[in-house]
Amino acid sequence: MEETNQNKGNKNEEVDFEPLIAWFLGIFSSVGNFFKWIAFAIKSQLKLMLGFLALGLICGAAVYFFAPKKYESSLNLGVKHTDNQTCFNLVRSLSWLVEDKSSGSLANLLKITEQEASQIKFLEYRDFNFRPVQARDTIVEKKSFFILVETTNPEGLPNLQEALVNYLNNQPLISEYRENLSREFEQKIARVSIELVEIDSLKKIVAGSIQSGNKGQGIVFVEPVDPVTVFKKADELHNTKIYLENELRNLKSIAVHGDFVASEKPRFPRYRHIAFVALGFLVLGLVYAMYRVRNDRFGDHTA
After folding, report:
1. What single string gives the DSSP state of each residue in 160-203?
2. Is the backbone of residue 216 left (phi > 0), alpha (psi -120 to 50) or beta?
3. DSSP conformation class of 121
4. With contact defined as beta carbons under 8 Å apart, do 38 and 286 qualify?
């Protein structure tokens, strides 16, 4: 009794691979028949496919010679008194207008002509590694970034660069932050100027008190005053004032690290686009040839 049950269990545990093998053989057979069908279609409809190829070459040449040429360039910017997230949001709003072909709104924002705005075909924010950034991505702060542009008029890139920098610099939130910094610099400059007046007066007194043959006239200091220290302090204040005045003059939220430079060759179209179009027509011709072979075969069977 136990031996009988054990034999039944062994039989149940055996796996039948025949259906699986048959399934694989069926797949290979179908693939083989498909390639035979392709080969027969090419052989029997060769003239038709060559006609499609010639038509593809003509269309590809038409695209190459008559399609508007698009030039690609990138502008490298750095953030000083703003953040990368704000710049990303502003550039993305411009990208939407370019994608939507809203040339009027884009021209209004960038303070350029509508014709110049219509020449911009693509605009995108890139991070410091020149990688595209999505809205869900974490924006890396305090790093330079790029604005990638495709345009049909490379001569207009300098004007576009000025417009983009002004657009980013003159946003209300950025302008308010920059104005606050400007007031801080002006207050610091005023304080340094007062200290300079005081130190200049002290320099005159010290210089007069150490003249040779003074015979005890002048100011008597409770603690000794080192003239070198006084003059050194005056130089430090003077240099500080120059630095603050330069910072105030160059107080911009966006710094240009690399200008737009148009490439000599357009990004589109190029010679390879002729091959792409010709290849597409060739594939289309192959599909049509296979369709005709299939119809002819079924027509023969029907007859």
Report:
1. HHHHHHHHHHT-HHHHHHHHHHHHHHHHHHHHHHHHHHHHHHHH
2. left
3. E
4. yes
pTM of the model: 0.63
Q: Are strands 254-258 and 145-151 parallel, antiparallel or unpaired?
A: unpaired
Residues lower than pLDDT 50 in the chain: 212-213, 219-222, 301-303
Chain centroid to CA 285: 39
CA–CA dist 242, 245 (Å, integer): 5
For tokens 């290849």, the residue is 279
Predicted local distance difference test score (pLDDT) of residue 222: 45
Residue 110: what pLDDT? 95
What single-letter amino acid sits at 117?
Answer: A
What is the signed CA dihedral for 7, 13, 18, 24, rounded to 10 degrees?
-170
Q: Domains of the chain: which residue ranges? A: 57-171+252-296
Please confirm whether the linkage preceding 227 is cis (ω < 30° from 0): no
**Residue 9 to residue 180: CA distance in whole angstroms:** 86
For the beta carbon of residue 43, count every other beta carbon within 10 angstroms: 10
pLDDT of residue 120: 95
| Residue 91 Cα distances to 18, 124, 201, 261, angstroms | 62, 7, 53, 19
Output 34-38 pairs: Cβ under 8 A, ≥24 positions apart.
Answer: 37/290, 37/293, 37/294, 38/286, 38/290
The residue written with tokens 């960038």 in the block is: 110
